[in-house]
Each structure stands twice: as structure tokens, then as C-alpha cells.
Automatic annotation (TrEMBL):
Residues 1-23 form the signal peptide. SUPFAM superfamilies: (Trans)glycosidases, Galactose-binding domain-like. Transmembrane segments: none annotated. Belongs to the glycosyl hydrolase 35 family. The active site is at E183, E263. This is Beta-galactosidase. GO terms for molecular function: beta-galactosidase activity. It comes from Hemibagrus wyckioides.
Length: 628
């Protein structure tokens, strides 16, 4: 009897404990008081966007500490689907992809989390976060109730949301709300069944008591297509918008509940070839003060922008294809390298008038090192290294195949055919359907001819003899991340015409450049077969940065080089394009620089190397129009 009594007593205590915990932990909307409630008490979030996928794991804590000391009580985080499921059915959550570790660091720093798992996220990220393997079916309708798309979405959310459920605030974690889709009202499909399917999936995996919301531009049409019953409608706007007008529009869709600006733009993105965009600090701080005075909840987009490492940048396509630069500095309160700016200090001065900001100094900028010059040597032309870069050999096809058709999604593919006849005079090589996606570096018998570029250079003149080898190295510059063109196939779309001939009988080489360089096979000392031609055309260069006993953030500057990719100790740190700008340096985090071992620097130069083949490691970034 006694043991039964003890058992009953224990059950009662455990139930009481769970009830007391669950009773204490709740995050809800109070529609009578037009606010959020955390544990039943009034709560207003002052949040900042930071993307773990754009900051090396090594620096996550550093950035989060600076955001906390900046006066924030929450962060807003995108989850890029393609970052975690690069191949369908294969998931990665380790290292720089360890989302749960990032949540843990935020939790221990005292930051709540507003999670935005999409599945589409925009974010100037490759294909808006959607995995390119979705494009295997050319008829798929992305961001719709399309059955094939929804099957893939369901599989992905089953993995992700199952992981996220324990992290919900009411379950003991720090996730206070989740966004469903992203500015869906801006997308042509306006498919409410799609949004209903997503709402059902989120509820199935997360339960009924979590706050789910949507974010849309503050226009009626956008809110009409992007909002859905059961998902709290929020809006986004920057310093060029009238606050009262914007929130009046939110009120049309949410007559009661908290005012929320889910993306208050503290800066803006940059495209290659445009000026670096900045947003005035005084405008940002004044508008933040006005919104906080209204009791609004605000997330500042971005608070820490970070970097589009590797091939992760997205692109816009309004009048033409406009790829986003490698730096996602965004003129944000924390710079790309995580340095506090005057804008952050001004924002903190505003916040401290509305909530207690942590006492103590703002963590300082991380130390930077100007490691100086490094001489590079030419390793070889891409076309001379195919045995190594494409060990499985080429695919053969009458017509060119896309990246997606050959199941290579990022980087570069080499397309090879032969001249069908003698062409003694300059003859136009044409992509009649504007089908070069996105840039092709053209060579005849290894002699570089020039560039074809999507929307810009659809024709290039070549000469040669019948049977000469015609090579086009095609670069994926990043898939469109916003609007109706996100189903952005890459490679050579459609046939190419040379004079009156349709070119056929293609050899198509998938290139594993990143794998080869990560394995250290393209380092200084290694030479190609010696048939190298000059310093023009797609080529690899390599050199070494000797250790100096310290490992510091630095910036590599490639003055006089044209365009390409940089690898530091085998890690792809992103695209450079000083010929076009506005970015003229690439951020190299200290975590990539060895203090004791030789550092290997490898550069893929796509067009023309600078004659002296030098690069320099400096202690500051250079973005045109940026005070450095
Ligand atoms: C006029 C086009 C508006 C597109 N929306 C943008 S551009 C910068 C930001 C990020 O992409 C963000 O991921 C979007 O939700 C909103 N936004």
C-alpha cells in the first residue's frame, strides 16, 4: 500500500511540476492588449537579424554577445533549406550548419529567437534557400501546392521542425515564434492552398500553442496574398516609409494584436556593378525611436549581415540578372566582420530609453591583421586540369545540358565541342535564347577569346579551323532569390549558333573544383602539363602565406585581377570581381588562418590575372562608397 501511495504522490508531484513549468513558460498574443505575452506578462521584442549560415561557427558567440550588449532581447534567424539538404534526402547539421548549437549559444547569451524556416526565405541567398535539385522536374511550380514541391517540403519540414520542437520557448527553449514562408504576397502564385498546407505542417510538428506569423511588404495586395487565418500578419518596411501608414495597413489585416515590423531595414544589399548602398544612421535611429514609442515590436534587418561564402549569394532579376556580391555587410550595425559601428551605438542609445540594456562595455572589434603581399604562381588552365577536376570524365550530348540535368548545382561546368568548319573570319557565336546562365569564358584550342554573359553579352566573335576545340567554361553566378524567375536553371540553356551552324556533339565536364582544392591537390609546387598559354583565360594560381604566430581576421585584396574565386586553406571564401565592384576585398575570418602552419592561397581567375600575380592581405575592407 505504502509503495502505491508513494507512486501516486510522485505522479502528482511530477504532474504539478510539469504544469508549473508549462504554466510559467508561454509565449502568446494578447488581442485585448495588442501585445505579446511571455509567461503571461507584457513582452515587446527588440530584435536583430543574423544568419548563422553567413558567419563562421567560430564567431557565432562573438556576434551574439555584441547583439545582446547592443540592447536586443531577441534575434531573427533564417534557416536556408539548401544549406542543410544539398542533395535530396541527405541532411547536414554539423559544424557551420549546427543550428541547434547556434540556438544554444543564443540561449546562453540571453537572446530569444524568432525562427524563419521558410521553406523559401529570399534573403539574397541562392534560390531564396530552395534547393536546386527541385528543378529536376522542369514543370515544378515552386512555392505552390504543386504535389512534387509539397512532397519535398513535407520531407524537409518533418526533419527540421522535429528538431526545433524542443527549442520552443514553452518547451524550455528560446524560440518564441516562427514565420511561415516569406513575403508570399509578393509572389505571382498567390496560392492560399499552399499556405494552408504549410500552416498544417507547422501545426502538426509544433503544436497549437506556438505563435506562427507571416511577413509581407506593407501593401494591400501583398498582405492579401501573403496572409492567412491562423498566422499572425506582420509587415516589413525601411526608413523610406511612413510608419503610421504602414501600421494602418497591418491593422487592416490584424485589427487587434501587437504592431510588428519584421524587417526594419538598417541598410541594404549590394549587387555586382552597383554602388555600395548605405542607409543614414540618424534616419535609422529616429525611426526606431518612433516605432518603439508606438509600442511596436521591431526586428532590424540586418543587425549582423556576414558573408556569402562559397557560391551562396543569390541574385535579383528585375530588368536584368543582377547577382548579389559576396559581402552581406548590408551597412548593418555590426559590420561583415562583426565590428560594432556608430550605427549600433546610436541604436543602443535609442533602445536604452525603452528597456534596460546590459551594463558594461560593448565587446570591441576583433583584431585585424595586414599580413601583406603574397606572390602567386600559375598552376595551370582549367582546360589543362580536366583529368583532376572531372575524374569521371565528360557526359556526351547532342545538345548542351543544364547544371541541373547533370546534377551539379553550383560553381562551374566546362562545355566542349569542335568547330564544324573552317571560319577564317570573325564569326558570331550566339546564344539566341539568352541561354548563357550566367557567364561563359570562351576559348578556341586553349586560346582565350572572351566572355559571354546573361542579359549583357549574347554574342562573341571567334575564328578557327574545322575540328578546333571550342571550350565554354560556364559559371553559375547564383540563382535568383526573389520574384517569378527563381526557377533559375544554370549552364547553357538551348543550342548555340556559330555562323549558320547549330553546334552539337557536346562533351560536358562537371567540375569538382571545391573538392580538388579542399584535398590540397592544387597548391603551389604542383604544375600542370606545361602547355599553359599566357595569363588570360580560366586558370588557377596558388601561393603561400607564411605563419607569423598570430591568427587574425584579414581581408584579401586582388587589385588588378579580374574575376574569380578565392580559397584559403581549401575553404571557398567567395567570389571576387574587382573589375566590376563595388566590393574590392574578401573577408577572411581568423578561423581560416593558421598561426603556425603554412597557409595555402588558391585563386581561380576566370579572365585575366594581374601581370605581377600578387595579392595582398590587408586589415580593412574596401567597398566603394564605404568609409574605410
Ligand atoms: C523590392 C523587392 C523587395 C524584396 N524583399 C527584400 S529585399 C531585402 C530583403 C530580404 O531579401 C528579405 O529576405 C526579404 O524578406 C525582404 N527583402
Amino acid at each position: 500500500m505504502a509503495s502505491q501511495a508513494l507512486c501516486v504522490c510522485a505522479c502528482v508531484c511530477i504532474t504539478a511540476l510539469i504544469n508549473s513549468v508549462s504554466a510559467e513558460r508561454s509565449f502568446t498574443i494578447d488581442y485585448s492588449k495588442d501585445c505579446f505575452l511571455k509567461d503571461g506578462q507584457y513582452f515587446r521584442y527588440v530584435s536583430g537579424s543574423v544568419h548563422y549560415s553567413r558567419v563562421p561557427r567560430f564567431y557565432w558567440k562573438d556576434r551574439l554577445m555584441k547583439m545582446y550588449m547592443g540592447g536586443l532581447n531577441a534575434i531573427q534567424v533564417y534557416v536556408p533549406w539548401n544549406f542543410h539538404e544539398p542533395v535530396q534526402g541527405m541532411y547536414s547539421f554539423e559544424g557551420d550548419r549546427d543550428l541547434e548549437h547556434f540556438l544554444h549559444l543564443a540561449n546562453e547569451t540571453g537572446l530569444l529567437v524568432i525562427l524563419r524556416p521558410g521553406p523559401y526565405i529570399c534573403a539574397e541567398w541562392e534560390m531564396g534557400g530552395l534547393p536546386a535539385w527541385l528543378l529536376h522536374n522542369p514543370n515544378i511550380i515552386l512555392r505552390s501546392a504543386d504535389s512534387e514541391y509539397m512532397q519535398a517540403v513535407g520531407d524537409w519540414l518533418a526533419v527540421l521542425l522535429t528538431k526545433m520542437r524542443p527549442w520552443l520557448y514553452q518547451n524550455g527553449g528560446n524560440i518564441i515564434s516562427l514565420q511561415v514562408e516569406n513575403e508570399y504576397g509578393s509572389y505571382f502564385a498567390c496560392d492560399h492552398n499552399y499556405m494552408r498546407s504549410l500552416r498544417l505542417l507547422f501545426r502538426n510538428f509544433l503544436g497549437e500553442d506556438v505563435v506562427l506569423f507571416t511577413t509581407d511588404g506593407n501593401r494591400d495586395k501583398e498582405l492579401a496574398c501573403g496572409s492567412l487565418q491562423g498566422l499572425y500578419s506582420t509587415i516589413d518596411f525601411g526608413t523610406d516609409t511612413n510608419i503610421s501608414d504602414a501600421f494602418l495597413r497591418q491593422r487592416r489585416f490584424e485589427p487587434k494584436g501587437p504592431l510588428v515590423n519584421s524587417e526594419f531595414y538598417t541598410g541594404w544589399l549590394d549587387h555586382w556593378g552597383d554602388d555600395h548602398t548605405t542607409v543614414d544612421t540618424q534616419k535609422v535611429s529616429k525611426m526606431l525611436r518612433d516605432m518603439m514609442s508606438m509600442g511596436a515590436n521591431v526586428n532590424m534587418y540586418m543587425f549582423e549581415g556576414g558573408t556569402n561564402f562559397g557560391y551562396w549569394n543569390g541574385a535579383d532579376h528585375d530588368t536584368r540578372f543582377r547577382p548579389v556580391v559576396t559581402s552581406y555587410d548590408y551597412d548593418a550595425p555590426l559590420s561583415e566582420a562583426g565590428d560594432p559601428t556608430d550605427k549600433l551605438l546610436a541604436i543602443r542609445d535609442v533602445i536604452k530609453d525603452f528597456r534596460d540594456v546590459p551594463v558594461g562595455p560593448m565587446p570591441p572589434a576583433t583584431p585585424k591583421m595586414a599580413y601583406g603581399f603574397v606572390m602567386l604562381q600559375k598552376i595551370g588552365n582549367v582546360s589543362g586540369l580536366l583529368d583532376m577536376l572531372s575524374p569521371q570524365g565528360p557526359l556526351k550530348s547532342l545538345k548542351p545540358l543544364t547544371f541541373e540535368e547533370i546534377k551539379q548545382y553550383y560553381g562551374y561546368v566546362l562545355y566542349r565541342t569542335q568547330l564544324p568548319r573552317d571560319i577564317p573570319d570573325q564569326t558570331p557565336l550566339i546564344s539566341p535564347l539568352n541561354g548563357i546562365h550566367d557567364r561563359a569564358y570562351v576559348s578556341v584550342n586553349g586560346v582565350y577569346q572572351g566572355v559571354m554573359e546573361r542579359d549583357i553579352a549574347l554574342v562573341i566573335n571567334v575564328t578557327g579551323r574545322e575540328g578546333d576545340q571550342l571550350d565554354l567554361l560556364v559559371e553559375n553566378m547564383g540563382r535568383v532569390n526573389f520574384g517569378s524567375k527563381i526557377n533559375d536553371y544554370k549552364g547553357i540553356l538551348g543550342n548555340l549558333i556559330l555562323g549558320n551552324d547549330v553546334l552539337s556533339d557536346w562533351l560536358i565536364f562537371p567540375l569538382d573544383i571545391d573538392g580538388v582544392i579542399a584535398n590540397g591537390w592544387l597548391q603551389s609546387g604542383w604544375r600542370a602539363d606545361g602547355k599553359e598559354v599566357g595569363d588570360v583565360g580560366p586558370s588557377f594560381y596558388s601561393g603561400t602565406l607564411k605563419p607569423n604566430g598570430v591568427s587574425r581576421d584579414t581581408f584579401i585584396k586582388l587589385t588588378g585581377w579580374t574575376k574569380g574565386q578565392v580559397f584559403i586553406n581549401g575553404v571557398n571564401v567567395g567570389r571576387f570581381w574587382p573589375e566590376r565592384g563595388p566590393q574590392h576585398t574578401l573577408y577572411v575570418p581568423a578561423s581560416l588562418i593558421s598561426a603556425t602552419l603554412i597557409n595555402n592561397i588558391t585563386v581561380l581567375e576566370l579572365e585575366r590575372a594581374v601581370y605581377h600575380r600578387r595579392v595582398v592581405f590587408t586589415d580593412r575592407p574596401q567597398l566603394d562608397n564605404m568609409a574605410v
